[in-house]
Amino acid sequence: MTSPDLPPWRSWTVGTRVMVRRTISGDTHRYTDVLGEIVRTDASGLVLRTRSGEEVEVPGAEIAIGKPVPPPPARRRPRHAPDEASPTDS
Q1: H, E, C per residue of the chain
Q2: pLDDT per residue over 43-67, tens digit each?
Q3: How far apart are the C-alpha atoms of 81 and 75, rounded to whole Å?
Q4: For 10-37, what is each residue's pLDDT tens digit?
Q5: What's the predicted TM-score (pTM) here?
Q6: Rg (Cα) of the chain, in Å, rounded?
């Protein structure tokens, strides 16, 4: 539970996977989303590690909304083309 004086993202812990909507200065869009695992959190904002491994710094002043999200689904194994023999066929 967070204090009424602190924004909700201040209670999130390192290692939590979150989605953060941040404000941007653009002509066509006002917001962009960042999805990743928290690497660092402090009074200045968050640092998130995205799926690609990139670390994105999100200043607290730019966080419009956000929430913890569940882990990503397990990766599916690649499909074989119908004319390819499966590895178990010999």
Answers
A1: CCCCCCCHHHHCCCCCEEEEEEECCCCCCCEEEEEEEEEEEECCEEEEECCCCCEEEEEHHHEEEEEECCCCCCCCCCCCCCCCCCCCCC
A2: 999 999 999 999 999 999 999 999 9
A3: 18
A4: 999 999 999 999 999 878 889 999 999 9
A5: 0.74
A6: 19
